[in-house]
């Protein structure tokens, strides 16, 4: 009866993780979901904030972009200073969640949109102390079904990403209430991780402060190929999430559907939200087929959807929604598997540093595609606007094929 730790492309006949691992998953996944709610708080109430501050569409976009830039700054700083490997991960989640909740709550006192954008940047910076350490903490509970566990965690975040669209589709909420509730949930997530959560029986060795390790662990052959695959994935993911609602709204209007904005928001909630199931299946496939094969399958399907969906703008709405749901399912199905590969292939005393740097660079790559998609759509229409996103999965597939044959994978 054989058992083995699953790596980039290994399989196993029978594997069991320790008792209590799924309870540990439930606590940490809940803590991360609550802790990350401030990421989406301003997005959910942009229509109300436009009226309060008389902001332009460009300024409204910066309320979201600022969070991502702040996250990148926080993650890069954490990686260089090895914070994720020096501070216990659940303790770091508490610190990050408290800071994010405080800066999010300060939106209630912001006099104008400029201050609000700055506060959103600080919120993103503190959230860099929630997401990467949560992934590291979860990995201490699982060896054999680590991909499934991390997939479930990312699936919870995916559902959270979709929720603002449902809020908008149902008519929105009073913006002050949304800010207060998300701040309280974020603090609760940090407390839940630190007080209720526990470390699993597979702890990572503690690293020591060495700024040079950020680059050294990242350029390890296995970590590098897994990260390059992740970068291709991120090139596609957030631009699809950011602009699918606009594409769907214009498509519904083109075909004469009434209340196009409302139905677009609800449809986009379904398209993004179904990715939560995709993350779970991606984790199962990663554990059974190996990280490389699972991510290649997901990127091949999502890349094909990116190439083809714009060509369907005049097709029947059910056909467009079906392709959208297929895209939403697979575009995020591979997300957690790149991080899982890093936890398995990277130097174990600097796993937190490697994960944080991977996430930081990945989020940097979301910015150009979020910026360029509406420019292409305005210039030549949606027919080919999403096609540029397929370059990411193509590059990711090449990288993950290399990972399959890399030494130690």
UniProtKB/TrEMBL annotation:
Span of the signal peptide: none
Entry's transmembrane regions: 21-40, 60-80, 92-111, 117-135, 147-167, 173-196, 222-243, 263-282, 294-313, 319-338, 350-374, 380-400
Name the UniProt record assigns to this protein: MFS transporter
Record keywords, A-Z: Membrane, Transmembrane, Transmembrane helix
Major facilitator superfamily (MFS) profile domain ranges (all copies): 222-409
Keyword match Translocase: no
GO cellular component, one term: plasma membrane
Top-level taxon in the UniProt lineage: Bacteria
InterPro entries in alphabetical order: MFS (IPR011701), MFS_dom (IPR020846), MFS_trans_sf (IPR036259)
UniProt key word Translocase: no
A GO molecular function held by the record: transmembrane transporter activity
């Amino acid at each position: 009866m054989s058992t083995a730790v699953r790596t980039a492309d290994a399989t196993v006949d029978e594997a069991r993780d320790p008792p209590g691992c799924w309870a540990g998953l439930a606590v940490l996944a809940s803590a991360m979901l609550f802790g990350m709610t401030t990421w989406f708080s301003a997005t959910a109430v942009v229509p109300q904030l436009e009226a309060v501050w008389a902001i332009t569409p460009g300024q409204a976009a910066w309320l979201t972009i600022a969070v991502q830039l702040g996250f990148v700054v926080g993650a890069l700083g954490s990686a260089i200073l090895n914070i994720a490997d020096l501070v216990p991960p659940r303790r770091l989640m508490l610190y990050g969640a408290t800071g994010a909740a405080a800066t999010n709550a300060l939106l209630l006192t912001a006099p104008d949109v400029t201050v609000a954008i700055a506060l959103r940047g600080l919120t993103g910076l503190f959230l860099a102390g929630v997401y990467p350490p949560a992934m590291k903490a979860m990995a201490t509970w699982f060896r054999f079904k680590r991909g499934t566990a991390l997939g479930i965690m990312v699936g919870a975040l995916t559902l959270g990403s979709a929720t603002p669209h449902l809020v908008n589709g149902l008519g929105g909420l009073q913006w002050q209430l949304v800010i207060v509730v998300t701040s309280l949930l974020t603090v609760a997530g940090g407390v839940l991780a630190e007080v209720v959560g526990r470390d699993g029986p597979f702890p990572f060795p503690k690293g020591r402060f060495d700024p040079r390790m950020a680059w050294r662990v990242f350029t390890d052959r296995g970590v590098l190929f897994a990260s390059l695959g992740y970068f291709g994935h991120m090139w596609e993911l957030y631009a699809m999430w950011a602009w699918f609602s606009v594409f769907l709204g214009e498509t519904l209007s083109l075909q004469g559907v009434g209340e196009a904005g409302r139905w677009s928001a609800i449809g986009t909630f379904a398209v993004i939200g179904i990715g939560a199931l995709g993350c779970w299946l991606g984790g199962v496939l990663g554990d059974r087929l190996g990280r490389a094969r699972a991510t290649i399958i997901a990127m091949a399907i999502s890349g094909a959807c990116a190439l083809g969906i714009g060509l369907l703008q005049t097709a029947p709405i059910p056909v467009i929604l079906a392709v959208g749901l297929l895209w939403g399912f697979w575009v995020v199905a591979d997300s957690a598997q790149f991080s899982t590969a890093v936890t398995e292939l990277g130097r174990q005393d600097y796993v937190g540093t490697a994960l944080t740097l991977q996430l930081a660079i990945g989020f940097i790559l979301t910015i150009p595609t979020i910026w360029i998609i509406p420019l292409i759509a305005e210039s030549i229409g949606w027919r080919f606007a999403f096609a540029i996103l397929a370059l990411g999965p193509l590059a990711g597939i090449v990288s993950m094929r290399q990972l399959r044959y890399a030494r130690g994978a």
